Predict the 3D structure of the following.
Amino acid sequence: MDIESLIVEKSRDIAREFIRAAKEASSEEDVRYRCNRVIDDFINSAGLKIKARNEYSIEGGRVDSKYGAVLIEYKKGSILPDQKASGTKAVVEQLKSRFEPFSRQSNIPPERIVGVGLDGDTFVFVMRKGKDKWDISPADVTPATVQRFLRILVSVGARGRSFTPENLVNDFSAESLLARRSVQTLYNSLQNGNREEIDVFFRQWKLLFGEVCGYSDNLVTKNAKAFNELCGLYEIKDANPDHLFFAIHTYYSIFMKFLAAEVISFMNPLGTSSLKKLIDASTNRQLKDECEKIESGKLWAEFGIENVFERDLFSWYLNLWSDDIAQMIRNIALRFDEYDPETLSVAPVETRDLLKKLYHKLLPRSVRHDLGEFYTPDWLAEYVLDELGYDGNPDKRILDPACGSGTFLIMAINRIKKWYQKHQFEAGFGPGELFRKILNNVIGFDLNPLAVTAARTNYLLACRDLLRTASRVEIPV
């Protein structure tokens, strides 16, 4: 059994054992002993090479237990799922004080250390997300929060993965178990769910997909070899072509919305990110409510961003909500939680299309080409802009009438930012006016709703360092 399946399978029993320890343990040491025994059993069953170090000495004190770069402090009934509670605050401060000395002693960056407070009833997760920023997440012990804890344990506290095309492809493309399982879950829901619940979404998608790339049942029959390659990629036999393509597009759409949610998290470091709320949702009903906020656009509206996403064709999974879909959402959110939003601030002027490479890996090359889907490589986009004589002057207008995932738009925005760096002193306007000019003058269109979602997400990423300068944003794609 793979580790992902084992985490899901074991999480309910582990949550039950932790809660039992909280009720029956007579001391803090007893809580530690009981919980460590459960954790060690999981590590052994997963075949992991992680050794517990108890009463681990570091400069200034001792850590109750250490598993790699995961530091655990146990308490007896003093932690509450409330950051302001005195017992919670105390264990958080204790964990924070461990980061720097442990980092020096182990030569592990503080951003890659995870602190966990646990009293059997309640977790509190403590992570460093930047020089002076902390991510503090108290939560009741439930199967969902145990899954989060186990995921952290499996990754040995390796936090702060960077948002690069290479990392995203490794974690979210069809080469990953996460993507294959997610597409299978969505496909099964389409096959077995109440079709009337999603008929409008599905028919509209099929109509648009056909208009964009000439997709039809005849095309699949004509190119059976390519379609069989696609089925083999997702380990689905005798697949319904319509449902399989719709499932893949939906997975990609969910990924993009979660990525955009991380950009919003980056904008608002003092608030709780929407993905964190997905992870911390203690019931599947609460999880669905949080997904509704993302899909409906309410999340973006709170920040004055009006049209990143509205309830679109790919939100159908909410109509067929089930335990399997809920687990899929949790798994995707947990994988995103391994990334550090702070890495989004690295070299924003050199932004590239983060989504193009991932989409290429969701559909085999032969399938994409049979569908007539060809995406512009970065070097060609740069060449075309050079031939246009486009120097990045923000008062010049540029339109891509078939923008796909937004490669030309991103390159244009990069040139504008470089132009501004060179001319900002004589330009006579600040970053807020620069952003207004970008929104007015860099414009894209596309018939494909999935491409529009990708282009809007990439546009948001390309302008992420300017988002705070505007009270209202409407992305011109």
Remarks:
- Strands lie at 52-58, 61-67, 70-74, 114-118, 122-128, 134-140, 398-400, 442-444.
- The mean pLDDT is 85.
- The first strand starts at residue 52 and ends at 58.
- DSSP finds 20 helices and eight strands in the chain.
